[in-house]
User: Which sequence fits this backbone?
């Protein structure tokens, strides 16, 4: 689990051209973990292929 | 001379229009008060005294004649750099024009300055290491809430009767709650965002703070209307609300949100919610379907869009960001696209589901914050028995609402021996009138009120 977060962080720092200093790394990693947990729950929600996001959102 | 420090915008404008007060005196009073109180509250990052004096010399008229107001510093003020709470934006060229909403308010009102905020609006605290934290007028050792912290502090502290802020996930409603004032986050697309520094284009709203419902409605009526400069701004035109504010709430079906919106709420939040529900005769409780997932989807979209917005700055000058903000933005820039697309698709499903509830109710109630204002500097708090980070979690009750752009009025509900807290009155899209009528009714019954802080 923790290795996955590290791999994710390392790959993206290269891809995006961001430098993550050693003293920020744990916090960035913490936020990645929080976001991943949320994304897992949102992704579990079944939605049909036809459920387009509105291209222009109107309330 | 009358002291206008705690006067409503309506009272000031009436006095100016009748010739009983001079706009010059009103604005001079406000400027002196800002000079005196701002060293404590740290609400203002710029005071536009010269501009205000030029404006009052032109003899303002209308429903906001001579009313001092100020705006969160992510809203353009001509000839000032639009800071958005950041150090980085100090290097931006000064804004070439006022934001649409500033220009519309200044038809009668008088701009007196720019207000402090959390960096790039990514906080619920009102803290800022570049400019210092905005401080709560009810207890300067505590947070204002954010990100529109200076806006709430300025209004709650009696520096101005009206301030503008922005609300992406709760940045108007959270500080309204912590500072004990009224806040309006209108329907997504209702008020022009033109001339404001963005945060999350999918979710950004501008709105207003005041110490009464009437003042909120006065500001709102002055600002609404289509704006070709903002592609998200609706072409819809509805009649002004002020003439309808007094029409009562008879026949309105009002319910309290249960489940998710009570879980984790502290005693002050629950007492405020229950007091409001009782006063309105709202005995019904409704479940907002999938509210927890809605909050998570809003969180993902926020992280991703904000991370993408700031990516170039994160590459080139990460040390110029507020550390708490930078670390979240970096993580946000790394969010995989399928998660964001799923969150947007879920948004469509959730919107349809919640809109169906409005076939049964006209408004529903929810706490604005789970707790009262924490001390400045606090990093974590206990939510539903768990120790969690404060910044990402103060908005748990506001995020599922702004996620689908519903209009909300946050009403302050004072309680004895406690910091204030607010309740959200949430209505169907484009029904700001209903939310404001309910707020007005609560104020008339003495349940909702902006308490005057000690000095």
Assistant:
């Amino acid at each position: 689990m923790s290795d996955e977060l590290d791999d994710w962080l390392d790959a993206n720092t290269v891809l995006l051209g961001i430098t993550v200093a050693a003293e920020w790394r744990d916090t960035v990693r913490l936020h990645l973990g929080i976001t991943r947990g949320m994304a897992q729950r949102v992704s579990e929600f079944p939605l049909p292929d036809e459920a387009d996001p509105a291209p222009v959102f109107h309330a | 001379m009358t002291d206008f420090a705690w006067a409503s915008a309506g009272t000031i404008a009436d006095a100016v229009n009748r010739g009983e007060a001079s706009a010059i005196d009103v604005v001079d009073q406000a400027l002196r008060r800002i000079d005196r109180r701002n060293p404590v509250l740290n609400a203002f990052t710029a005071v536009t005294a010269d501009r205000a004096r030029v404006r009052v010399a032109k003899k303002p008229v209308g429903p906001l004649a001579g009313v001092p107001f100020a705006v969160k510093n992510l809203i353009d003020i001509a000839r000032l750099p639009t800071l958005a709470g950041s150090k980085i934006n100090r290097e931006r060229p000064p804004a070439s024009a006022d934001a649409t909403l500033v220009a519309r308010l200044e038809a009668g009102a008088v701009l007196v300055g720019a207000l402090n905020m959390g960096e790039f609006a990514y906080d619920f605290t009102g803290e800022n290491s570049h400019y210092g934290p905005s401080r709560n007028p009810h207890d300067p050792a505590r947070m204002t809430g954010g990100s529109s912290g200076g806006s709430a502090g300025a209004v709650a502290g009696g520096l101005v009767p009206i301030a503008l802020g922005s609300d992406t996930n709760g940045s108007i409603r959270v500080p309204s709650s912590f500072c004990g004032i009224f806040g309006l986050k209108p329907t997504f697309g209702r008020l022009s965002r033109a001339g404001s520094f963005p945060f999350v284009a999918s979710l950004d709203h501008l709105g207003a703070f005041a110490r009464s419902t009437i003042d909120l409605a006065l500001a709102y009526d002055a600002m609404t209307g289509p704006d070709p400069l903002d592609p998200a701004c609706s072409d819809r035109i509805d009649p002004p609300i002020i003439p309808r504010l007094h029409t009562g709430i008879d026949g309105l079906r009002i319910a309290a949100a249960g489940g998710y919106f009570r879980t984790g709420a502290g005693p002050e939040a629950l007492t405020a919610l229950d007091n409001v529900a009782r006063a309105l005769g709202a005995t019904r409780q409704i479940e907002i379907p999938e509210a927890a997932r809605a909050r998570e989807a809003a969180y993902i979209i926020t992280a991703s869009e904000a991370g993408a917005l700031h990516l170039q700055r994160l590459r080139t000058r990460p040390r110029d960001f507020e550390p708490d903000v930078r670390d979240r933005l970096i993580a946000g820039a790394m969010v995989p696209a399928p998660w964001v697309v799923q969150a947007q698709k879920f948004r469509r499903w959730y919107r349809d589901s919640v809109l169906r509830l409005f076939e049964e109710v006209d408004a529903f109630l929810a706490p604005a914050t789970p707790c009262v204002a924490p001390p400045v500097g606090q990093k974590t708090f206990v939510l539903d028995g768990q120790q969690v980070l404060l910044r990402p979690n103060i908005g748990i009750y506001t995020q599922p609402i702004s996620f689908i752009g519903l209009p909300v009025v946050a009403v302050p509900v004072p309680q004895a021996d406690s910091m204030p807290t607010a309740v959200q009155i949430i209505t169907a899209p484009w029904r700001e009138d209903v939310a404001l009528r309910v707020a007005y009714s609560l104020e008339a019954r003495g349940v909702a009120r902006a308490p005057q802080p000690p000095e």
Q: What stands out?
A: Chain B has a mean pLDDT of 97. The radius of gyration of chain B is 20 Å. Chain B touches chain A through 51 residues (CB under 8 Å).
